Description:
Blueprint: H1 4-20, H2 22-25, H3 32-35, E1 50-54, E2 59-66, E3 69-75, H4 85-88, H5 94-103, E4 105-111, H6 113-117, E5 123-124, H7 126-131, H8 138-147, E6 150-153, H9 161-170, H10 176-190, H11 192-209, H12 213-229
Amino acid sequence: MKNPMLEAVSLVLEKLLLISNLKLFSSGAPGEDKARNTFYEINSFLRGDVLEVPRTHLTHYGIYLGDNRVAHMMPDILLALTDDKELTQKVVSNKRLILGVIGRVASIRVDTVEDFAYGADILVNHLDRSLKKKALLNEEVARRAEKLLGMTPYSLLWNNCEHFVTYCRFGTAISPQADKFCENVKIIIRDQRSVLASAVLGLASIVCLGLASYTALPAIFIPFCLWMAG
């Protein structure tokens, strides 16, 4: 049976991560004008390679399948609204992506290298060095990716593009990006100034809005939880 408290905490953390990275999804991203003019050395990619595209705050990952095809996980709200593959197979817009993250709906889809990278530089198999893990054979990596093609639940913390790629490449689904974010949240919580700030804000809300259950309970409960976590 799922723990409601853990689900609530997970939801809050995911929204914080989404908000902290909205710049990544915003229109007018640096790669938009560059995308049409970027040339990639596709012949240097091998089937089963991990392609890594650094963004402003996050890194996007995919598995190269050969023949200018990349399998990658993409949030897309359109998947929940229509079964028309002609519409859903089009390049995912920023709005579709953000709403897909919020709605937790995504697919592991295949795009060209150009559409996958969208003008950004590509790193190849960088995870092998950063994680210091032994990779599976490239053909096995590609086959794992192909078996997972299709719709999938999405979570910034528990099931994102990095989880997909690390499962295919190493056999274990992990996300150092999500882990790092959670560690940063822990640091903030453990900082006693966070407890003091939340207590001051709680008292201010009571003074401004009056003593009521909807103001008094959060004013007491939130600083107490932060204090206990610290």
